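for the recovery benchmark. tokens below, seq after
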């Protein structure tokens, strides 16, 4: 095992059996809390017509419930499975384990930005008519929203600057709610199936968990053939590819925090490519990493990690 691929104590995929009862409780709670939250959002107007929590603030019910009740459902599932099955607090993977893993944290912090920008570049190369080098579409949208002319390049600079610095850290606080469930609990529990199989399976489960939101137009909207079912499948494709990267940083550091940081970085940089789109974006294809074209760099990296790194050989 090479020095760059330290052994992870997150559990071996070569011995043991899947703890089905604990996995079952975890999935029941993680999906139950999230999907009931989605049902509440749908029943109160959905994502686009959600009522304001406090009148006049613009803060809607869906904007409150998504980063809290929905995103923290997997973390609740982790805690519930431990309580109801008597597992206790062993192997929580809450230690950051910074020593010897600074490179892993750096990759989690800035890797998503590189992959997202490359994916957007591939999209614009394949669809050059969609590229807006003057940011005219963004400028018009900003003027409509603000009522005065706003320099679109300033908006780009601010968003990119935040995406590379503070935003991944802030987003990690909310992404922890998911990663404490998916990568810190479900992934180790499924490793008796083999680390590669467990990683791919967690990615699929993570994607399916998003389906009620996709059905309401989240991430992809409805302006594409086969909506929203095709969008649901596209989400699973992305969660498998991105989930492989998040599993890799988790297993390298034997900690949930690189995954939370990486997940936060994904959310921070996701919309950057949209700033350069001429006209309405084709979200199913790109330029975000959630699009089928925009996700290609993630897929290439996932394949390389699965085949060439020793973490997934355990």
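predicted aa per position
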């Amino acid at each position: 095992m090479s020095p760059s691929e330290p052994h992870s104590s997150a559990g071996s995929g070569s011995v043991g059996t899947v703890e089905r009862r604990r996995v079952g409780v975890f999935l029941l709670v993680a999906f139950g809390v999230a999907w009931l939250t989605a049902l509440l959002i749908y029943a109160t107007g959905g994502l686009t017509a959600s009522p304001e929590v406090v009148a006049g603030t613009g803060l809607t019910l869906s904007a409150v419930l998504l980063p809290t009740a929905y995103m923290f459902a997997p973390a609740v599932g982790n805690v519930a499975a431990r309580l109801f099955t008597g597992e206790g607090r062993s192997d929580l993977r809450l230690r950051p384990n910074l020593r010897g893993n600074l490179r892993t944290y750096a990759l989690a912090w800035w890797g998503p930005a590189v992959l997202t920008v490359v994916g957007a570049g591939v999209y614009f190369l394949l669809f050059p008519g969609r590229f807006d080098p003057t940011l005219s579409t963004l400028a018009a949208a900003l003027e409509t929203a603000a009522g005065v002319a706003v320099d679109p390049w300033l908006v780009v600079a601010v968003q990119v600057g935040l995406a590379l610095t503070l935003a991944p850290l802030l987003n990690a606080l909310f992404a922890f709610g998911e990663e404490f469930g998916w990568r810190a609990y479900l992934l180790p529990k499924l490793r008796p199936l083999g680390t590669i199989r467990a990683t791919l399976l967690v990615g699929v489960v993570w994607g399916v968990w998003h389906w009620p939101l996709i059905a309401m137009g989240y991430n992809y909207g409805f302006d594409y053939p086969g909506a929203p079912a095709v969008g649901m499948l596209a989400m699973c494709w992305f969660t498998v590819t991105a989930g492989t990267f998040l599993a890799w940083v988790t297993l390298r550091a034997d900690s949930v925090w690189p995954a939370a940081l990486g997940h936060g970085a994904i959310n921070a940089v996701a919309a950057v490519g949209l700033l350069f789109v001429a006209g309405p974006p084709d979200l199913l294809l790109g330029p975000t990493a959630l699009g089928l074209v925009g996700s290609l760099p993630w897929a290439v990296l996932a394949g390389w990690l699965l085949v060439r790194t020793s973490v997934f050989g355990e």
